Amino acid sequence: MNNLKKLSRRKFIHQSSLVMLGMPLLPGTFKNVSSSDKVRVAHIGVGGHGNSHVRWFNALQDVDIVALCDLDKKNLEEANKRLHSMNPDAGKTDLYTDFRHILDRKDIDAITCATPDHWHALIAIMAFQSGKDVYGEKPLSYSLAEGQAMLKSLEKHNSVFQLGTQIHAGENYHRVTEIIQSGYLGKIHTVRLWKTGGSPGLGFPKPEIPPDTLDWDMWLGPAPYEEYTPVRCHFTYRYFLDYSGGVFGDFWCHIADIMFMSLHPKGLYSIESRGERPYDGIADAPKWIDVDIKFDGLDVFWTTTPPAVEGADQMHIGAHFEGEKGSLTCDYKTCVIRIGNEVLNDIPEIPRTIPRSPGHPQNFIDAVKSRKQPESNLVYAREMTIPMHLALISFRLKRKLKWDSINEKFIGDDAANYLLSRAYRSPWTLPV
Ligand SMILES: NC(=O)c1ccc[n+]([C@@H]2O[C@H](COP(=O)([O-])OP(=O)(O)OC[C@H]3O[C@@H](n4cnc5c(N)ncnc54)[C@H](O)[C@@H]3O)[C@@H](O)[C@H]2O)c1
């Protein structure tokens, strides 16, 4: 039944007539949106980054943006104006303040989601249930249990998911992966990841009455109730652990991505965070956080200041790979390789074997049509996000934790296991 929903309208009519003519359908063909059809997309959460989604998807030839949704009418109307000034030929775009109206529509193939993190999993799962594919923002989910539920739901509904880590699609991450995987630097035993700058405390503002344009209760959604203050809401919500993971949670996925893409580390067995909350306000995400992570055969260190390796202090964010024969330091766009006294930006003899992405949004739309999972698919995204969840739990509990990566449970620590999920505020429930 779900597969039927994924049929394009034109293809449905065509295939129905084939069935009437007594011609059997191949199982795979049922799911395909015809490659000549436009994919009908709705954008949910069009405050800050959601506008990049609108801009990127508007630029794709095989996409029609048919609806926008935001629970803040001001952001919704501004995003709609921006879309139509960018593309005067854009068709009628329906505007909604409740995403469930989008999910009810049978003529929408895919959604993008750029809401705050505490909504990511619920909106994605409800979208999968309604037969829609999802381009969802990082981090994948607020809790580890949500990521597990997303994967179960994706598999059940045969959906397509792309995590919004658009840097993954760039040339640099593909090239770094080829260099690391070539073995030129020998076995990589250590990776150092960093992002400078920590989360601010945001002062001690008094609660206020939410603006008329904003549905504050819906904004909180499954998160614990709190009275409204502007700092808890748009953009700065990311500095509250009730909704997000601060600067660490914001950037982990972007830079850990190059480590997962090139090394696919497995068997995480220990994690230890050290850090501090800000003193100067109600926000509680780490002012700084350092994390030691041990995988089978790989030590990973996250720091809030650059590591003591050459060139790192020039980079706000970066990854440094240490191998038996050399090292590689990179960020989103640059790469420096050091072998003995040699300093290189590339090793041309290493062949370019990894297919390049047509761009993250296009890679997603291609996947919607082909029913093959895109580059930052949910299985990959979930593996990459697990250390982020575990590090924030270690930060909250202020202790080193042992992890059973097969059963996805902490060993001998009930409190840590309790924090792998969060009870939802009524009436929201995490679908299972
Ligand atoms: N991939 C990237 O490079 C990148 C960059 C920035 C932000 N992000 C991610 O995008 C997401 C949004 O971040 P932001 O900075 O744009 O936040 P923001 O607060 O500026 O925008 C979020 C918007 O979502 C709306 N919203 C909240 N809950 C909603 C719901 N249930 N239904 C509909 N609308 C809802 C809000 O009203 C707001 O307009 C975050 O998860 C963030 O991590 C990704």
Topology, please?
Layout: H1 2-6, H2 9-20, E1 39-44, H3 50-58, E2 63-69, H4 73-86, E3 94-96, H5 99-104, E4 110-113, H6 120-129, E5 133-136, H7 144-157, E6 161-163, H8 171-181, E7 188-195, H9 216-220, H10 246-263, E8 270-276, E9 288-295, E10 298-303, E11 317-323, E12 327-330, E13 335-339, E14 342-344, H11 360-370, H12 378-397, E15 401-404, E16 409-410, H13 414-418
Parallel strand pairs: 1-2, 1-4, 2-3, 4-5, 5-6, 7-10
Antiparallel strand pairs: 7-11, 8-9, 8-15, 9-10, 11-12, 12-13, 13-14, 15-16
Nicotinamide-adenine-dinucleotide binds next to α9.
Describe this structure in words.
By secondary structure, the chain is of the alpha/beta class. It contains 13 helices and 16 strands. Strands 14-13-12-11-7-10-9-8-15-16 form a ten-stranded mixed β-sheet. A six-stranded parallel β-sheet has the order 3-2-1-4-5-6, with helices on both faces. Nicotinamide-adenine-dinucleotide binds at residues 44-45, 47-50, 69-72, 75, 99, 114-117, 119, 137-138, 164, 166, 218-219, 221, 234-235, 250.
Task: Fill in the keyword field for this structure.
single chain, 6-stranded parallel sheet, 13 helices, binds nicotinamide-adenine-dinucleotide
Q: What is this structure, in a nutshell?
A:
Helices cover 32% and strands 19% of the residues. It is of the alpha/beta class and 432 residues long.
